[in-house]
Batch of 2 targets.
Target 1
Amino acid sequence: MLRLQAFKFELMPTGEQQRQMRRFAGSCRFVFNKALAWQKERYEQGESRLGYAGLCKRLTEWRHDPETAWLANAPVHPLQQALKDLERAYANFFAQRADFPRFKKKGQRDSLRYPDPKQIKLDRANSRIFLPKLGWLRYRNSREALGMVKNVTVSQSCGKWYVSIQTAREVEQPLPDGAAVGIDMGITRFATLSDGTFYAPLNSFKRHEKRLRKAQRAMSRKTRFSNNWKKAKARVQRIHSRIGHARRDYLHKISTTISQNHAMVCIEDLPVRNLSRSAAGTTEVPGRNVRAKSGLNKSILDQGWFEFRRQLDYKLAWNGGWLVAVPPRNTSRTCPCCGHVSADNRQSQARFECVECGFEENADVVGAINVSRAGHARFACEVSGVVRPPAAGTHRSDSGMARCRA
Ligand SMILES: [Zn+2]
C-alpha cells in the first residue's frame, strides 16, 4: 500500500533567506492575481478561459517583459504552481465545491510550492533542505520524515516560516486491530465511546477568548497601519495560531488513540456544514432559535468535529480499519435494551431512562451504543468510502469552516 504523508517542520532561515522567501511568495501571489485578472477580462470579452498551458505561455512573456522582469528572479516552478492553483480554484468553483476564485492579499497564507523532487535535496542527518534559489535551509527536525520526497511547500504563518514535505512510501497493508466502537459527539463531552470512555471538550477558543478579546480591543484603539497597530495585530494573530495549535494537537491525540485501538469506528453523519451555517438565516428565510443555534455552532466549530472526522477517516485507513457514518436517526431516543423509541426516554441532557423497561445510562453512552449498532447494520451492505473526505483547499464563505481553521 502506498502511503502519502506530509511532514511539517519549522524553518530556521537566515535574514537573506527570509527576504527571498517573502519576495518569492509575493511573486507567486502576483502571478496568481495577474492570471485571475486576465481570465476575468477574457470572460468579459466573451473569450474562452485559458488552460494551464496557455497561462504558462503568458507567464514566460511576463518574465521577459521589462515591466515585470523581476519575476525572472523567482524560481519558475513555484510560479507555475500558482497557475495550477488557479486552475484548481476554477475547477472547484465549477464543481460547486467552492466560491469563485478571489484575489490573494499580501500576508494571507503566503506560500510557494516546489513540485519537482529532482531539484530538492533533503539532508535529514543535518536537518537541512536544499531548495532552488534559496539554497540550504535549516529546519527544526522534530520527527523523521519517512519516504521519498514528492514535493515541498514553504509557507509563512504568524511571522514563522514552515516547510511541509510531502512524501510517498510503500507500507505493508496492516491488519485492523481491536473491536468496533460507536462515537457520540457532543458539546459537554467532545466524544463519548460506546464502551463508556469519553473525552472532555477542548474549547480552546473559550480558554483563550478573554485574552483574544483584550488583544482585539487593544488593536482597535490603534491607528490603522501604524507601527503600534501592526504590533497589536501580530499579537492577535499569535493568539489565533496558539488556539489552532492546541486544537490540532488535542484532536490528533484523540483520533490517533481511537484509530489504533479499533478496527471499525461508527460515527454520526452530522451535516456539520449545515449546522455551522449562519443561524440567522436570510431575509426571506429568517433563522429560528437564532441565539441558541449560534451558540451551538460556535461550539461545534470550536471543537473541530469536521477535522476530527477527517483525521479518523485517514488514520483508520492507515491502520486497515474503517470509518462508517450513519444517519443520526433516533440515536439519542432509542433504548439500547428494549428498543423502545420515545423522546421521554431522555430525561435531561445527561440522563437516559427508558420509560418501558427502566434501563438507565448516561445519555451520550446510549447515543454511542445506538450509533455503533446502526453502523454494524450499515457495514453489512457498504464498506468504507461512506465518508467523503473534504476537498482540500476549498473555500466557502457560508460554511464558516475556513474562517475557523486557524
Ligand atoms: Zn427500554
Target 2
Amino acid sequence: MFLTLHAAVGALIGEEVSSPTLAFVLGFIFHFVLDLIPHGDEDLVKGYQDGARIKRMVSVATVDAIVMAILFFIFYSQDFFFQPKVVIWGITGSIFPDFLIGVHEITKIKILDKFHDLHYFAHNFFFERFHLSFTKGLIVQLSIIIAIGFFLLSYFFV
Ligand SMILES: [Zn+2]
C-alpha cells in the first residue's frame, strides 16, 4: 500500500489524539489494518520478492515517497495541521512498519524476520479472495487518499 495513504491516515490520527506516543502506536497498528485491505500492489510485491519486477517496485515506491513528502510539505507549510507535532508522530508510526521492512530487505537482519512475516501475513491475508489489479488498486487507494485529504482540510476550514 502507498506510503502516501499510510501517512494520510497517520496525519488523521495525529489530529484526533493529543498524545504523540499514542499517535505513534495507533499509526503503527493502523498500518496493518490498512494493509489488510486489498489494494492492488500484491502482485508487484510478489514480483519484487521473486526478483522479476525490482525496477518497477522501486520506481513506484520512489514516486510514492516523493508524493508523500510534497503533500506533507504543502499541508505543513500552510499550517493546515492543528497539532503538527502529534501529526508528525502519527505519520512516523504509520510508515514505520514499511521502514522496518525496508531495513530487513537491505540488511536481512534476523531480528526482523518475524516482523517481516507478520507484515506480509496482513498484507496478503485477503489477497486470494479479493484480487485487485494494480490499476483498480490505484483507484481505490487514490480515492481514499483524496477523501482523507478533504477530511483533513475540513478541520481547517470549519
Ligand atoms: Zn506495509
